[in-house]
Amino acid sequence: MRAADGFTGRANSALTCGDPGMPIPDALRAVQGFAREHGIKPTAHVIKGSPPEPEIGAAGWIVDLDHPGGAESLVMTGPLEKFADGVAESRDLPGWWELTAGSEVSAAQRHVLGSGGNVCFASITEDGVVIAAVRGAVVEDLLHVARLAVRPSHRRQGLARRLMGELAGWGLAQGATTCVLQVAEHNEPAIRLYEELGCTEHHRYRYWIPAVS
User: Fold this and answer.
1) Per-domain boundaries in the chain
2) Is the pTM of this model over 0.85?
3) Domain 75-203 top-level CATH class
4) GO molecular-function annotation terms (predicted)?
5) How does DSSP classify residue 167?
6) Chain-centre distance of CA 203, in angstroms?
7) Which of 43, 152, 171, 176 sits in a 20 to 30 Å window from 134, CA-based?
């Protein structure tokens, strides 16, 4: 179970992998208790088609169709060597945070985005302004990619592809071989980009919540 003041679904949900050591209904009640203690919405991160999914539904939980990130997301993976181009420089710039997390960055956001292994805050700037940004974190041989963003005024210029290539180069230099990323199923442009880079779908997941709070 994880809590981070509501920032991102992943950091504020219970990951339903493995044996919880108790019946599923009891485990879900524990999730609800944990959520109350931390002031967050009780949420279970469930891999689509996984063994716990039917039991979670039978316990009175439903897919969160109103989840801010979308009701269903893909986890995609791909070899870094296929699209590495250059090497990103990690720069902890105020503009990076503003573009990826908003104008007022909370302590929880800094904790979530600043932790998780060897982290890279990659960006592209123009006249001192961050116009594209992405976060990478190397854990063992995996480069976890998140928060890819391009300012609306600079989209459709290949900046996302360029930044992904530079981040892949950074990941290779840190010993990673494979990228892992998450993308909402409705974000078709991003999915096309990742597919063009050589990424394929590994699995899907959804967030489940109690039908009655």
Assistant:
1) 10-72+206-210, 75-203
2) yes
3) alpha beta
4) acyltransferase activity, transferring groups other than amino-acyl groups
5) H
6) 14
7) 43
